[in-house]
Specification:
2 strands, two-stranded antiparallel ribbon, single chain, 5 helices
Length: about 120
């Protein structure tokens, strides 16, 4: 006579996945906040308008991702022209492509922020 066994499993993978996705979004938002600080340190300063215009467009899902936004009429023009002779009187680190440079030079730190948040659970 054969022996038969039935095995079934109840899981909550959906809940676990949702929690991980939530922590990933939190990590992306925290990394973007840090990215703002790093970007401002490299941005051109004159009257402070540009430096004060750095914000985070917060992520609500991991596919969207958080974004560092610099919202002034001239931000894109200055950012995309590193050949401009940026004054370093107010900020000795002033340069073009300051957001891109800040993110690339600190990608390890920003990745660590995200990883730390995801692993918290």
């Amino acid at each position: 006579m054969p022996v038969r066994a039935s095995v079934s499993m109840t899981n909550n993978f959906g809940a676990v996945t949702d929690e991980i996705r939530h922590r990933l979004v939190q990590g992306e938002n925290k990394a973007a906040e840090r990215g703002v600080a790093l970007s401002v340190d490299l941005s051109p300063w004159d009257q402070g308008t540009l430096a004060g215009a750095h914000t985070v467009d917060r992520a609500t899902d991991p596919e969207q991702g958080a974004q560092v936004v610099v919202d002034t009429p001239y931000a894109a023009r200055l950012h995309e022209h590193p050949e401009y002779n940026f004054s370093t009187d107010s900020n000795p680190n002033a340069q073009g492509k300051w957001v891109e440079t800040a993110m690339l030079e600190n990608k390890g730190e920003l990745g660590d922020i995200i990883r730390t948040e995801v692993r918290r659970g």
